Amino acid sequence: MPPRSSACSTVRSVRAPAVIALILLCSGSAFSLHPPGPTRSPESSFANRTEGQQRRDRRSQVSRASSTPRVRRSNTGWTAGMVAAPPRVLEGAGPLWQRWWFITLLVVLGAVSAWALLKCRATRVRQLRKVRTRIGRDLHDDIGSNLTRIAVLCEALREQSTAGDAATEARLTSIGRISRESIAAMSDIIWAINPQQECLTDLVRRMREHAEEVFAERGIALSFSAPDQGELQLRLDMDLRREVLLIFKEAITNTARHACCSRVAVSLRLDSEFLHLEVTDDGIGFEPSDAPGGNGVPSMRRRAARLSGRCGVRTAPGRGTSIQVRIPLKQSRAAATLLARIRRVQEFARLSRFEP
């Protein structure tokens, strides 16, 4: 066969045109077979044409245009011609960020980075929980036991002191009171940092126990309203639980000391974004402009403001007092989703009970 560089070559009286066509197709060159003679009858010939298409080599980014073979036959014989294939055109490589291996590498790196960050955060959370548990255990075992011993010794010394030594007895009483208050404050701190008591149900239980203990000594009736059981499973931040508990204890203490009431109603409820606390009594009340200059209400307002919330007092002489606290939930989106689902389930259950 003639080389590719020749413009055209002719083979006459070919007995095996199919073999020549196959060889030329495999070589990727343009060829034509046609009968010899000055004239060609359109009635005695046929044509078969295969159009080439653009093919892209992914490895070398080379665009190749395949040739267009043509085959013609007549009753008198065959003539083969071969035309050199058109030159290959080398296209420039695309940008780096468009290559498939670069995109795959970015996806893998992003997935590995996200996994590493999540694992690091989970490790830090576990370590923090262990530290909080250890601190709470040490406070309870060491400092708590020492404060309890001090309080017991003060009570023993006060009972053994002479009746005429009133100053010594007052000092011992003061020491015992301070020790008991320190024990209670340390107990609140241990409870707040305990990672096993992060649910709202733990906060409600501690608030109820404190209110019942304070009001039982004074014969005051208590009515405590808490969220439903499903809402009690909501997890709260450590600072939020501690500040809400301290605000509640201050409100209960002020009510027991100054309200002169016979009944107290405590209401704790949740909505999609806020935690609402209300302590209402039927005591003597007071004029807001003549409010006592103690540190109780300002302290509650400071603690509420620390959580981006607010604390208000509604009162009037002879109409009792109502302390209202509203604290935003830090995990408002998660809380809103959880509370919405709980309320849908509760509504469905309520409607199901009325079905005939």
The DSSP helix count reads 7
CATH fold category name of the largest domain: Heat Shock Protein 90
| Weakly predicted, low-confidence segments | 1-16, 28-71, 78-85
Structural Rg = 46 Å
Architecture (CATH level 2) name of the largest domain: 2-Layer Sandwich
* Global structural class: alpha+beta
CATH class of the largest domain: Alpha Beta
CATH superfamily of the largest domain: Histidine kinase-like ATPase, C-terminal domain
Q: What is the global morphology?
A: extended
Q: What does this protein structure show overall?
A:
The chain has 3 domains: 10-93, no CATH class; 95-196; 197-356, 2-Layer Sandwich (Heat Shock Protein 90). Mean pLDDT is 72; it is low at 1-16, 28-71 and 78-85. By secondary structure, it is an alpha+beta fold. Helix 2 packs antiparallel against helix 3. The chain contains 7 helices and 13 strands. Strands 1-7-2-6-3 form a 5-stranded mixed beta sheet, with helices on one face. The protein has a 5-stranded mixed beta sheet with strand order 9-10-11-13-12.
Blueprint (SSEs and pairs):
Layout: E1 10-12, H1 17-27, E2 30-33, E3 47-49, E4 54-57, E5 62-65, E6 70-72, E7 79-83, E8 89-90, H2 100-160, H3 166-193, H4 200-218, E9 221-225, H5 238-258, E10 263-270, E11 274-281, H6 296-306, E12 310-315, E13 321-328, H7 332-353
Helix pairs in contact: 2-3, 3-5, 4-5, 5-6
